[in-house]
Amino acid sequence: MKPEREYLQAPLLDVRNLKKHYITPGGMFGKPGRVVQAVEDVSFSLAKGETLSLVGESGCGKTTTGKSVLRLIEPTAGSITMDGEELVGLSAEKMRLRRQDMQIIFQDPYASLNPRMRAGDIVAEPMRNFRAKNGGGKESENDKLAWLFSKVGLRPDAMKKYAYEFSGGQRQRLGIARALSLNPKLIVCDEPVSALDVSVQAQVINLLMDLQQEFGIAYLFVAHDLAVVRHISHRVAVMYLGKIVELADRDTLFARPQHPYTQILLSAVPQPNPKVKATRQILRGDPPSPANPPAGCRFHTRCPQAQPVCKEQVPALTVRSDGHLVACHVQ
Amino acid sequence: MTSTIPSSVHASVQQPPLLEIDQLSTHFDTISGTVRSVNGVSYSLRAGETLGVVGESGCGKSVTALSIMRLIPMPPGRFAGGAIRYKGVDLLKLSEKEMRKIRGNRISMVFQDPMSSLNPVMTIGVQIAETIMLHQKLGKKEALARATDMLRLVQIAEPERRVNEYPYQLSGGMRQRVMIAMALACNPEVLIADEPTTALDVTIQAQIIELLKNLQAKLGMGVIMITHDLGVVAETCDRVVVMYAGRKVEEASTEELFERPVHPYTRALMASMPAMNAAVEGRLLEIPGIVAASHELARGCAFAGRCSYAVERCRQETPVLMEAAQGHSVACFRWREIAQQAAPQDDLVGAHS
């Protein structure tokens, strides 16, 4: 935690009422398909140099939210402002220029590196795409490249290699170097360490945290590993079936989870300590389909504390005494 | 177990192990040389016990399991030495026909990815019944009825309906339940679970772990739990084997291992994990570098290149397993000095609450 972080300044990124609906391929005889509400009315903001994590299970909409922020997925509705500028509705060219400040690191470092390009070209490509605007010639590009490789802990001779010659952790370092090359203000990290082994995962987490310290980059960190999230985040948003159910400071959220889903999610993580006897509520069944979400609170079908009101009214995300945002009728 | 410390002495000398892996070496011949995926590994499993096998990708934990099942493709794979004894019978010496009576019947396996291990064009009932018909000589009708019972056993709702469904109609958690039902259909004595919850969400993982624990209490089979998740180990296993680059580097009871890990790799693995229930500030402990490719392994300890304790001897000689305490073996020359120091996670983050 960086206590000097200023809550009061205008946020770097502000997402309001973001929605992403997909239409499933239609039924027979031209019937329209069903609407899948992948992201439904999600709002949050992110300050400069801050890490906000989006956590939840597969299909909760966390990755869709992350990609919508960069408009790699076109939002159905809502507003996304970066540095006060509205991104939704920007022309393709204006959006392209805006993306210099907004980069992304993907989950699968292999699938996101061109196998026919040398590592140096992969990392330099964003700089070349924007060279006209940034000025600078070949020399400054080479200097920057050498600097980027050393920043992410790769040797200079790695520039000549192809992606297949790197290990998983090194590939993820390449992805990070590429994201850093334009000095972005925001990086969306989409499960950046979940494909890595534990020992290598620690290297990449440390690298991301060091870079944030040094350059004040904000991270929108999409992950399902709650231990990693606890380590890296300033604030955490928990999502269930396309909606944020709880959003709070990291320490508040982990110490005093309020939403029944968050409580169950946190208790489900196995503890690496055989002396701690698991005291957990086991969630029965599977999450309902986002094509047919339950009415009222989307969690009520699996919630141990559900009341009649939960079936009828959608709970709003409201501020609680400790600054916590919770969407629950009961808690 | 001949040349290594018999690590099972402490528990029950009188009870012979159900499954005994003795100096197993499974190698693969490739164009770039011989890959020693499993290099002289020994461990044993007793009835009703859960043994954890932990390590990172490529450490040989899954190849050991596939060797037990005799599912290693040959060539390029070959057994370069050792034995796998199930109730005293060396499985490596059995003919394929004899092995088929054991595989899926007395020893069965659950894989990580249930979707790719289920046949997409057969109903799950028929897939479970297939095993039962093959091994128990039951007719199709009885076998399907038994399949429905198995689905009920693994707590699938509406088993009568689900038995006629196809894998794509089930969620990931349900598919893993089907895999478990299939593995348990013939009431095996050994169940090998290879990363059974890695592909699942954490709430579903909790369901599956709970299910496996209950089934073991009920049916009494020995379980080999292969995983990279130390949390899963702490919750489910009685004893743990830690593997690195094709070798066993440490073995102890679960409590002993978490309390007094002595191999530098085990200690580094524990300290590099972010903790769930402790507020952690600052950096995680890193294990520098990466695992050396196993055909590059020359002499010396395979971990020496990444180990903060390594000395010249570690690069020259390969450490054998030594007894660090009763039932606790470790392959490290410097374990005595290392054991003197506080647990690595204490130095870094303060003990887990």
Q: Would you identify the regions of chain A where 5 or more consecutive residues have pLDDT less than 50?
A: 1-7
The number of helical runs of chain B is 14
Structural class of chain B: alpha/beta
Task: Give the helix level of chain A as a range of percent.
Answer: 25-40%
Please tally the helical runs of chain A, counting DSSP H or I stretches of 4 or more residues: 11
Overall average residue pLDDT of chain B:
85
Which value, in Å, is the CA radius of gyration of chain A? 21 Å
Number of strands of chain A: 12
Q: What radius of gyration of chain B results from the CA coordinates?
A: 21 Å
Distance between the termini of chain B: 38 Å
Q: Sheet bearing the most strands of chain B, described?
A: 8 strands, mixed
Tell me which protein chains meet in the greatest interface and how many residues each side has. A-B, 44 and 47 residues
Largest sheet of chain A: 8 strands, mixed
The geometry of chain A reads as globular
SSE string of chain B, helix = H, strand = E? Answer: EEEHEEHEHHHHHEHEHEEHHHEEHH
Q: What is the molecular shape of chain B?
A: globular
Helix/strand structural class of chain A = alpha/beta
Strand numbers in spatial order across the main sheet of chain A: 6-7-8-3-9-10-12-11
